């Protein structure tokens, strides 16, 4: 958000509350806090060295009912996606994000791949992600021309590709990473396991608001 837009919004809020402009000292303090947000208390589960964070991400993602494959490089991606589809008796057909990181899916093996947004008839989507959060096993996906949000919700089966180098400890680190990446995307989706809800008796139902299966392919790009 630009400074002019922020000023306009804050001015309207102050007017609705019957308050005047902020004193210069208070405005300086506010601007400083917005420019350099201070993290809150970070739990121990969000700390550790790189190897610990990757292993914790795997543990927490699987605890949230996501399945997971680990591969050494992107060349193995078509094979593990095809094998996962076969294990679940799904046709070898996917709709994949137009992101260049998924170009490896095309022209390899038996997969039929189309690129672009998802439609109601699509059964399986494949997307990259922005980050993985070790604290909770959460995937962070951002919207954009190369990563349509419909891929995250319409198909019953969602395959997400995450690199080990994208895994951060906690949410504070993820938000700092996102701010450093540049302009904030229109949508940030945080996905922990497949979609689920509980009925009045708290019986868990999968696929209520999105995919009933979430499969993560973790590329160990930090093995060296």
Automatic annotation (TrEMBL):
Stretches assigned to coiled coil: none
Signal sequence residues: none
Domain of life: Bacteria
Transmembrane residue ranges: none
Residue intervals of the LUD domain: 124-219
InterPro entries found in the cross-reference section: FTHF_cligase-like_sf, LUD_dom, NagB/RpiA_transferase-like
The name this protein goes by in its record: L-lactate dehydrogenase complex protein LldG
Organism, as annotated: Caenispirillum bisanense
């Amino acid at each position: 958000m630009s400074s002019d837009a922020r000023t306009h919004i804050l001015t309207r809020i102050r007017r609705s509350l019957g308050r005047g402009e902020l004193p210069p000292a208070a405005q300086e303090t506010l601007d400083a806090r917005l420019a350099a947000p201070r993290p809150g208390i970070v739990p121990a589960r969000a700390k550790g060295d790189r190897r610990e964070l990757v292993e914790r991400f795997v543990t927490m993602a699987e605890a949230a009912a996501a399945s997971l494959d680990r591969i050494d490089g992107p060349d193995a991606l078509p094979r593990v996606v095809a094998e996962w589809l076969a294990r679940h008796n799904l046709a070898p057909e996917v709709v994949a994000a137009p992101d260049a990181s998924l170009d490896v899916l095309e022209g390899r093996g038996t997969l039929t791949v189309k690129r672009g947004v998802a439609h109601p008839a699509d059964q399986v989507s494949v997307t990259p992600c922005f980050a993985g959060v070790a604290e909770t096993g959460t995937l962070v996906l951002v919207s954009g021309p190369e990563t349509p949000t419909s891929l995250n919700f319409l198909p019953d089966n969602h395959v997400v590709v995450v690199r080990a180098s994208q895994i951060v400890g906690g949410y504070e680190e993820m938000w700092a990473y996102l701010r450093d990446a540049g302009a904030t995307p229109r949508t940030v989706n945080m996905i922990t396991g497949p979609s689920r809800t509980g009925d009045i008796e708290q019986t868990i139902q999968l696929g209520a608001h999105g995919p009933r299966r979430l499969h993560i392919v973790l590329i160990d790009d930090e093995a060296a």
